[in-house]
Amino acid sequence: MRFHANRDVFSDAVSFAVRLLPQRTTLPILSGVLIETTEGGLTLSSFDYEVSARTQIEAEVLEPGRVLVSGRLLADIANRLPNVPVEVVTDENRVVVSGGSARFTLLSMPVAEYPSLPVVGEPTGVLPAGVFSPAIAQVVVAASRDDVTPVITGVQLEAGEDSLALVATDRYRVAIRAVPWHSERSDGGSALVPARTLQEVGRTFGSTGDVTISITRGGDRELIAFSSEKKTVTSLLIKGNFPPVRRLFPDNVDHFAVIGTAELVEATRRVQLVLEREAALKFTFDADGLGLEAAGGEQAQASERIDAVLAGEPVVVSLKPQFLLDGLSGVHTEFVRISFTKTENPNKPGPVLITGQKSREDTGTEEYRYLLQPNLLLR
User: Fold this and answer.
1) With CB atoms 3.0 to 4.6 Å apart as the test, which of 67, 168, 277, 341 could cross-link to 143 if both were Cys?
2) Position 62 pLDDT exceeds 50
3) Start-end ranges of CATH 3.10.150.10 in the chain?
């Protein structure tokens, strides 16, 4: 094999191919990137039996061939090469990568032992990357990071005819975002995607055009594929039943407060400075606005008061500040509505519902909803 390629294009392609590979693997061959010549140039692929990435780039192919080489090492080399065309040449079991006066020689891996990449099925639906990527960022923060319960480490995608819903939970909060999309099939159904993979998809395809999603079922290896502009990522789906969290959301709430989003974020970040880890902030909503209070170690205390418009009786809730900030990061409007739900116990506050609001008088938007359980230990 021998080819020339643009240095930046080649470096970006290798980086994309290795981004989802695990840092450590029991099978060294799965840490490789497969480089193949095609009629249009090059195809670079990676696969670890759970996640795959594939991309095509233009290149001047002088000698066709296939080669498997250490992915992360190749990515580091490509990123450090001088800004001149890259030449890659294979010589028996060695791969020579050069650019200008820089020259690297790597050992190749046995291509015959590399697993075949998953086959992508028919499209399930299409949506703009500019809508999909922000929606992923809004929801993925609520996914659990505890592998003890794998089913909640994923984001549930629920495909309808004209909308795609993203749902995530870690038991303490639930985030839901609905986005418009064009369905290609009537049997879209749902798919539980690992949150880490979906987060990388959002970052990778954030500036592209449309993203095509393909859900393939049947057999032991159910998978989902995301494709855009000659790049494709596939992932095995998480097996198991996602908890029915939608029933936790109230139909309507008439007890709520409206606050400036940026003002609430800044005040929360300031007051939480005195808190110890895992401690909660006390939020007092009354006719005079919103008061924030925190008591930390070594008798450190902090408080602040900001403007808020309250509909209903005064209420006090205690919330973990980072969980609140995660929810507020998904509010892309000037104002935020914090609604107070009820429980059967009048002395026990229910979860607070966070939604966006374009103005103080607006009725709010239901596209993004974030339900956060109060910390009941602090009064």
Assistant:
1) 168
2) yes
3) 2-113, 125-246, 250-372
